[in-house]
Design a protein that fits this description.
Blueprint (H helix, E strand, L loop, with lengths): L1 H17 L1 H24 L1 E5 L23 H4 L4 H7 L11 H11 L3 E7 L16 H4 L6 H12 L2 E7 L23 H16 L8 E5 L6 H9 L8 E2 L12 E4 L12 E6 L16 H13 L3 E6 L9 H17 L17 E7 L3 E8 L7 E5 L5 E6 L8 E4 L2 E5 L10 E8 L16 E5 L4 E3 L8 E3 L8 E3 L7 E8 L3 E11 L3 E7 L5 E6 L8 E10 L3 E9 L7 E10 L1
Parallel strand pairs: 1-2, 1-8, 2-3, 3-4, 4-5, 6-7, 7-8
Antiparallel strand pairs: 9-10, 10-15, 11-14, 12-15, 13-14, 16-26, 17-20, 18-19, 20-25, 21-24, 21-26, 22-23, 22-25
This protein binds ligand H79.
Amino acid sequence: MKLFKIKFVIGCLILLMASPLAAQEHVENQHADDAKMAWWREAKFGMFVHWGVYSATGGEFRGKMPTNSAEWMMNKAQIPIADYKVENVDKFNPTQFNAKTFVGLAKEAGMKYLVITAKHHDGFAMFHSTSSPYNVVDATPFKRDVMKELAEACQEQGIRFGFYYSQCQDWHHPGGMGNGWDKTIKRVSFDEYVQEKAAPEIKQLLTEYGPIAIFWWDTPRDMSKEAFDSLHSSTNLQPGIITNDRLGKEYRGDHKTFERHIPRKGPVGADWEVCMPISGSWGYKKSDRDFKSIETLIRNLVDIASKGGNYLLNVSPTGEGTLLPQATERLKAMGQWMKVNSESIYGSTASPFGKLDWGRCTKKEFANGSTLYLHVFDWPKDGKLLVPGLNNKVEQAYLMDGWQALETSSADAGVTVSLPAEAPDKIASVVVVKVHGKLDISTVLPKPTKDGSLVLLADMAYLHNNEGSEQLSLLEGRRGGDSYLSRWTDAEAWVEWSFTIDRPGSYDVSAELSLQGKKSRFRMGLPGQLQTVEVASTRRARDYAEKSIGTIEIDKAGEYTLQIKPEKGEWQPMNLRKVVLKLK
Ligand code: H79
């Protein structure tokens, strides 16, 4: 493995030397970004709010629940604009709404920012739009600019405030995208919609509502460059505003977004955020019973922080303007946990370890030391918590809750922390370990379980793909499923895994793969002992099958690598999820 690292460093040096100008620009952009992103990276936890006229009926249309996400009801039930007005707009009267209480709850939960739907796909403006009367002040019995009230409450309570704005879809304006069901619409061009409604509304949101920290675009679709630019240009009205990656392909924005799922690994070198509803639906839905448990919510926050991302957790105010007790309870419970443990979340960066058996880790690095926050989900029964591969000298270890000092001992395998018998927190107990100097962690290679089987996942493989070429890459599984190696069109590209074997013997090797081509040939085995393997089609790229691909002989305990290399000329690209070794 060392050799690859050296090669990689040399590669980077050559790149840097070859383009000094590009490198310098990159560094400057990075600094500008660093200053702008500082508060967001520190914040880690924000509140997302989906609130609109769909909330008035709780996603119900004439006794039916047309969709699993209430903000889509107009589309899913194909509700004509005129009926949507009668059923939802005319009924929107959230008299219990109190911006101060609402923002207070976000604050109590430990959230540092709030992003709310100023306009969702239904086209209804939740602010006093001066470009369209289809807004909360002019069209509902409530007549209050709830965005203004929230902006002010956030400002008062020190919560950064941001708008969600659906820029392409608009099921109300005759030029907006998405409404193919209401035949009474007299169509105009999309550019007209942008000029008449979207661009001026965005401009208004960015000039009349005080400091706006975030602009959150959604559902990018193709449009003219002029239209994009006109939407984008308004964000310059707020210095330091942070935008997501959903305006359009050419506009990468400041951070990546993941919707409803947590990636297996955080994207490297990018800021990112997971948005997720606290229940099943984004917008308030009467029949929604899918509230995530407090355990899931806290562990999600920890999991995301341990991968270096932010958690934007969505709540859904009702037609009355309040949250259901299920949501309030959960936010308060998160706040209780944060009261004790937030130091391990705010301002933390991603875990320096691979997968940990007992939970997750976040860290903070300083000039002469580092702090590790060990989030223990599964409290060890023997009272010994192994921090694998940690070589640094430990200065101090203690429980976050109550600051009880803990004994540690160092050995080849890493640092072991001695824990009390009872976990202070059933969901996630934080053990703080302060070490001297820069972090020094040895990679601990995977080894077979007691029954002699070892799973080598795609995301554990070392890819020889010309440093990140698109011809062989690791792709994220759908909905948090296993990642897989894909786009393996280059027969020169190959992969390998390193591992430790403590029981010598014959190991059967199988692979979980998919192959669209008729058949494919590759070589597999320990370096210098590669065997040719032929696999038959699994029909479609998404049809995975477990295939036996040979045997390897291990005559003594030690570290090994297993390689898979395409057979030139007879290679058909395959997708690979994992390789499994099994002691015969
Ligand atoms: O605002 C929330 C969603 O409404 C919005 N993005 C988040 C933040 C979103 N718009 N489109 N999509 C997400 C992707 C498409 C989802 C759909 Fe469906 C699947 C539309 C129809 C099927 C989910 C299920 C929404 C309605 C039914």
